[in-house]
Specification:
Strand content: 15-25%
Bound molecules: ligand C2E, magnesium ion
Helix content: 40-55%
Number of strands: 9
Structural class: alpha/beta
Largest sheet: 8 strands, mixed, barrel
Radius of gyration: 21 Å
Organism: Pseudoalteromonas espejiana
Protein name: GGDEF domain-containing protein
Number of helices: 13
Shape: globular
Keywords: Membrane, Signal, Transmembrane, Transmembrane helix
Amino acid sequence: YHAKKKGNSYLFFNDTMNRQAVKRLQIENLMRFGLKENHFEVYYQPKMNIRTGKLTGMEALVRFITPKKGIISPGVFIPIAEETGQIIEIGEVVLNKACRDVKQWLDDGLFSGRVAVNLSAKQFSLPDLTTRIDVILQKNELPSYFLELEITEGTVMDDPQEAIAIMRSLSARGIHLAMDDFGTGYSSLAYLKQFPLNTLKVDKAFIDDMKTERGRNMVDSIVTIAQNLDLHVVAEGVEQANQIEILKKLNCETVQGYYYSKPLSKDEFTAFLKQQQSKSAPSLISANKHL
Ligand code: C2E
Ligand code: MG
Ligand code: MG
Ligand code: MG
């Protein structure tokens, strides 16, 4: 930096800025290399129905696995990828792999629900978004029925009218839409009603807050809003058995969280699906025993 350095605090500030800029640049370069070398993998976290104990769907979550720096968390690289625009290419890798994996689970008779894929604001506002998605679905021979896209309030509140048009074109294809991290952004109820959504995902912060009565009332209110708008509700970041009990009382049936499972690699998730299948067909197994 060519600015004159006056005093220690100014120097320190400049140093921090420099270190951050260097770190950013390092990650940007790692991502460019990682895109070439296929270092982005997709993990899957189950969404479970707490009444039946059955799998209802899963969320695809990107994992950046570098040979030299190990696993870099999405919390670190996604914001940088958003800024540099690399999120568009990363997002396509994730969507492509998620469609490929779900197609295989479908063909193997292991799963016939939807996979939820996170869509960044940059991807959402691509003028050819729907074409790009169509191409990926076609390439993987996956009907759009099996896809759900998760978007955040920030993504759609930038230009709500434009967002409604984009959401409608996705929805018209049979793609489901979920509002992710609901309650942490600044979307208004007036818009919530107009967005062609299928699902509200209640942010983990609200689930953590269920320790207090006020917190439980908040989740109760969100679930009620969702029900009045005919939306499915998913509780995010559920870790404890007592949270499951509370959510049952609040009529929130679908949960995602470490309580059931962390995000799993493709192979781990395949094993999870097989285990689910053997659980849900006990009569078949016991019938076979008598043969
Ligand atoms: P998100 O979409 O809200 O995903 C849920 C995050 O919560 C995931 O973190 C998941 O691992 C974590 N989580 C789930 N259950 C629990 C729990 O019980 N306890 C705790 N402590 N955490 C739990 P992850 O995978 O680190 O992803 C963080 C965020 O990065 C995501 O939040 C999403 O905003 C973004 N992200 C992840 N994958 C993608 C992607 O493929 N594309 C885009 N655009 N963003 C992504
Ligand atoms: Mg998500
Ligand atoms: Mg979320
Ligand atoms: Mg989140």
